[in-house]
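Fold it.
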Amino acid sequence: MINCNNAYERIFKRFDEDSDRKLSPSELRHFLETIGEEQLLMEEAHESMDSDGDGLLGLEEFMGWMEREIKLGNEERKMEELREAFRMYVMEGSECITPKSLKRMLSRLGQSTSLEDCCVMIGEFYVNGDGVLSFDEFTLKML
């Protein structure tokens, strides 16, 4: 397994051009440009990472930011996977999983289920009592 701290330290050292163990705004800009970030994000990133307010980023500040960014990326990836799964169960033109669309998808997966059983399944998870499953309700169930 890769040690993330070592990887972050290697990245940090790569962009610490003057080897002072701190990233200046210009060194951070170079790093963020390399990974394709926009100028506005660069300024916000520097302010949010500079926990001691010295205008420079130490290795610990950089590593903390990298860990937060990776966690955020993982959460975004998980939500996109949930959206894709949800779309598989939604009929064209609808924004919800209905008993009919659930039955259709389960049938495609080789599971024969009655419409009544699909109503019961959806009823176990919907929140607002409308008889269909919205993306938010689906997400609550899946997380």
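The longest strand covers residues 22-23.
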